Structures are given as C-alpha cells and as structure tokens.
Amino acid sequence: MEQAQNNQLTNGGIWNDSSGQPIHAHGGHMLFHDDYYYWYGEDRRDDIYVSCYRSKDLFNWEFRNHILTTSTPAAPIRVRTNLALVNDKGGKVNLERPKVLFNTVTKKFVLWVHYENGNNYNDAACAIATSDSPDSHFVYHGSFNPYGYMSRDCTLFQDDDGTAYFISAARDNADLHIYRLQKDYLNVESLVGKLWQGEYREVPAVFKRNGKYYMLTSFCTGWDPNQGKYAMADTMDGPWGMLSDFGDETTYRTQPAFVLKRTAEEYLYFADRWNGSDYFQSSYVVLPIEFNEDIPILNDYSTLSLEEDTLLIHFER
Q1: How many other C-beta atoms are found inside a 10 Å radius of the C-beta of residue 90?
Q2: Measured distance CA(133)–CA(40) in Å, rounded
Q3: Do residues 157 and 167 make contact, with C-beta atoms less than 8 angstroms apart?
Q4: How high is the pLDDT of residue 307?
Q5: Mapping DSSP to helix (H, G, I), strand (E, B) and coil, where does residue 279 land?
Q6: Structure pTM?
Q7: Cα 206–35–141 angle (5° rounding)?
Q8: Distances in Å between the alpha carbon of 8 and those of 19, 147, 247, 252, 265?
Q9: Is the Cα dihedral 135, 137, 140, 145 positive or negative?
C-alpha cells in the first residue's frame, strides 16, 4: 500500500520515514545533492552507527541505507589513524554527530564524525569516511586527534568557493577549534581559530548569510537543554565576536544539530530534543531563523506544514 504524503510535522514528535518507521538521524546533517536532501544522523540500534534518508520536500523521508556499521570496510589513508570500528572488548565504539560534504574536486562524499571508544570518553577524536555516492555504504578511514588536540562535538562547513572547515570542541569541551581542511577534505590543513576559551560551548552549527558567518552553540549540560548562543564573524578565520543569546533559556528545549540554507533568505534551524532517560524517544525540532537586519532570532513554533503543490513551509505556534 502506498504511504500517504506527509504535509505536516509536529516539533518534538517522533517523525517517521515513508515506510512508517521512526527516523534515526540524531545529531545529524543535511546535504542537498541532485535535487534531493540527504539527511545523515546517529543510529544507535544494533550494529548501526550512521543512517541516511532522502527527501525532496523535507517532509517525506525515504530510508536509503545504514552507511556506517560495525562491519563497514576500513581502508587506510595518508593520515595515520585507528581503523577499529569495534573496541577492545568487542563492543561498539561511539560515532556521534556525523556531517557529510561533497567534494567537487575528488567527486567523493566525505563524512567527519566524533569518535569515542565505547568504554569512556577519553579518546576525544574525529574520524573520516568516504563514498562515491551520497547513500551507498561508506568506507571508513579511521580516527585521529587533529594536531594532537581533543575533538568532540563537531560540525563541517563548506564555503562558497569550496573551502571546507571542521569545527569541534577541544580541551574537555572548554574551547572550540576551527580547522581549515585540505582540498580533498581528508585531513586538516591548519588550525585557524581557538574560540571562547573556558566558556564550554559545544555542538557548533555554522551558516553564512550576506557575507557574514554565524556560529550557533550550546552550553555543556549533558542531555539537558540550555541557553543557546550565537556569534558572528566576517571570515571563518575570525575574529569572532562575543557570544549572544539565541532563543530562550533552554533554546526551546533543543540542542543544535545543523542549519539548512534553503534559499538566500530561508534558514532552518534543525535541532534535537533529547530524552535523557530514553534515547529512542528523543525527537526533532525545526524552527525558522528570522533576522532583524544581521541579528538572528529564534522563535518557538509547534508545527510546520508544506503548502500544497509548492515547497513553501509555514510555521504555526
């Protein structure tokens, strides 16, 4: 039986894919490629690490593949890495906050992710995987610590000229580091910024509007939501301004995952609403980022609906 088209989503509810199964894509990222949005995110079931879904309208999601699992093939690259996808006890490692970019030079889809060994959070590393297509099985290239630094919650950002940046929490989450990537996105080229030392910001999400760069972050309070902050810069190398409040004192009970730019003036804040007592009851929230000149504003809306026969999205309180 053909699944009915979904034209409305409830923020904070469990979202299902086109087969009626819950979407497993937390801490994720979206890539628009060949007329589809590809949504990558954490999938903690069984032997799975990262799953991929695709959609043309952001409302109806087709499950495509478990792109990283414990049995994903591993292959070394020029960077010395740890290729293990299970830990020394035979259990799963942790792969968190996967982000994927398409490299126009190599024609590869490149994934960066936060890696921990599954026993503790002492590794604080990043890991890389690649694929020839957005939703096929990826090849795992291992984990490492960029320039020897700790690297936890992370994101990727691709600038208009194709230059890519990896941003991650360092020094036990006390600071955020910005790394410019090499042209093939398979290694860091340089550490271009150390931000907000000692302010304990995590889960960075970066976007660009009218030539200005924005970074959203949350404070470190585990599963509990907190006051979101944003900062602005004229270049990714900085200087970055001081942090200002974004949303309310709990960022409407969310934590940033990524920001999706749909048009020159439409920016969507995708977030997780975590359930610390039952991870699989965690849900998703999408809110429009509105602007007062250059200042980003986040308001709370309970539902979003797709206008019939268009791709216009309406938000309702």
Answers
A1: 8
A2: 13
A3: yes
A4: 86
A5: helix
A6: 0.97
A7: 55
A8: 16, 45, 23, 20, 22
A9: positive
